[in-house]
Amino acid sequence: MRRSGIALEPDDTEREEASARCHLADAGIRRLDELSDLEAVPDVVVERLRRGLTARLDDARDRLADDSTTAAPAGSADLVYRRLRRALIAVEAMELQRLYDEHAISGTTRRRLQRSLDLEEARLADG
Fold it and tell me: Which candidate in 13, 55, 60, 95 could, as Cys together with 22 as Cys, close a disulfide (CB 3.0–4.6 Å)?
């Protein structure tokens, strides 16, 4: 089954996905460079898009460099960022719950802000 390509091992699937993510981000960056050269897009927009694509590319490269039997390299700034941001999201979620428990915010506000935190955390997981 594995040789046929019908079923891939989880590690193979993760590497394949990370490799594809690298290709996608590279293609996006190349196209962004073309648009930037044409001056068809404001510089502020180009830089914002470039930061997002570069972060995706760095994340995909980190995943490719990461051996499934060892921890990711400690020097990986993107990985460190994601871990720290997840920890901060947890702190923010606890504070959000405290505000709600103390009736400082409404249930609607709590749900809206929790959803925002959940979405950000999901984006960090997807990289």
Answer: 60
Residue 54 near residue 33 (C-beta atoms within 8 A)? no
C-beta neighbour count of 32 within 10 angstroms:
18
Total-model pTM = 0.50
Measure the CA–CA gap between 96 and 115, rounded to whole angstroms. Answer: 11
Q: What is the pLDDT of residues 42-58, one digit of tens each?
A: 888 888 888 888 888 88
Per-residue confidence (pLDDT) for residue 108, from 0 to 100:
92
User: How is 49-95 classified by DSSP, letter by letter?
Assistant: HHHHHHHHHHHHHHHHH--TTSPPPTT-HHHHHHHHHHHHHHHHHHH
- Could you tell me which residues come within 8 angstroms of residue 82 by beta carbon, excluding any fewer than 6 positions away? 59, 124, 127
**What is the Cα–Cα distance from 32 to 50, expressed in whole angstroms?**
7
